[in-house]
Automatic annotation (TrEMBL):
<feature type="domain" description="HTH gntR-type">
    <location>
        <begin position="6"/>
        <end position="64"/>
    </location>
</feature>
<protein>
    <submittedName>
        <fullName>GntR family transcriptional regulator</fullName>
    </submittedName>
</protein>
<keyword id="KW-0804">Transcription</keyword>
<dbReference type="InterPro" id="IPR036390">
    <property type="entry name" value="WH_DNA-bd_sf"/>
</dbReference>
<dbReference type="InterPro" id="IPR000524">
    <property type="entry name" value="Tscrpt_reg_HTH_GntR"/>
</dbReference>
<dbReference type="InterPro" id="IPR011711">
    <property type="entry name" value="GntR_C"/>
</dbReference>
<dbReference type="InterPro" id="IPR036388">
    <property type="entry name" value="WH-like_DNA-bd_sf"/>
</dbReference>
<dbReference type="Pfam" id="PF00392">
    <property type="entry name" value="GntR"/>
</dbReference>
<feature type="domain" description="GntR C-terminal">
    <location>
        <begin position="74"/>
        <end position="196"/>
    </location>
</feature>
<dbReference type="Pfam" id="PF07729">
    <property type="entry name" value="FCD"/>
</dbReference>
<keyword id="KW-0238">DNA-binding</keyword>
<keyword id="KW-0805">Transcription regulation</keyword>
<dbReference type="InterPro" id="IPR008920">
    <property type="entry name" value="TF_FadR/GntR_C"/>
</dbReference>
Length: 208
């Protein structure tokens, strides 16, 4: 695989928690596993570190940072500000086609099993469809970057904490409120959806 493909594969394996958190990643071990040389592995790890997927483990090595209750709370506070804003601005432009595509994402998520990567992708697709009509490119770009940071937590939450059913039910309720032209209730539900999910995750992380 080329450098770009290697970067994406390592990133996806991090998102799936294939590599252990809190332990140094050995370049040679990764090169052997991905059947490549150490140079593209080094470059991929450097890019992942620059994007926040990896942190220093001392002696020029890198590791996947453990999940943090403090970081989960910080990400939640940011989401609570930006996502309701995007939804509120997008609501006047939402139509049946967009809401139907969002419904398709929920159906696909119901069939995705316990794969946290797939759930994370479909979760973002669902929210992105609802936020896209806000027509604010910088806000949408920030939300996409935020989603990449949040994704490991979302996968952990849905699979390890058994949160997938509650999340799916709240997504369905959100769609129904949008179809029923109840924008304020929809925005309030989104805020509550983010806050309650984060509270459950923070409580769990504080105990481990």
């Amino acid at each position: 695989m080329n450098k770009a493909e290697l970067y994406l594969q390592i990133r996806d394996d991090i998102r799936r928690r294939f590599w252990p958190q809190g332990q140094p990643l050995k370049q040679q071990a990764l090169a052997d596993y991905y059947q490549t040389s150490r140079i593209p592995v080094r470059d991929a790890l450097a890019r992942l570190a620059a994007e926040g997927w990896l942190v220093s483990a001392g002696k020029a090595s890198l590791m996947i940072p453990p999940l943090s209750a403090a970081e989960a709370q910080e990400l939640c506070l940011i989401r609570q500000q930006l996502e309701p804003l995007a939804l509120r601005l997008a609501i006047p432009q939402l139509n049946f086609a967009i809401l139907g595509a969002a419904e398709d994402c929920l159906r696909a998520a119901a069939q995705a099993g316990a794969d946290p990567l797939r759930h994370g992708e479909l979760n973002w697709q669902f929210h992105q469809l609802l936020y896209q009509p806000c027509a604010m490119p910088t806000l949408l770009q920030l939300l996409q970057q935020l989603h990449l940071k949040v994704e490991m937590y979302l996968g952990f939450q849905q699979v390890s904490l058994g949160y997938a059913a509650q999340s799916a039910a709240e997504h369905q309720q959100l769609l129904q409120l949008l179809r029923d032209d109840q924008p304020e209730l929809a925005v309030a539900l989104l805020q509550r959806h983010i806050a309650e999910a984060a509270a459950a995750l923070q409580q769990h992380l504080a105990l481990v």
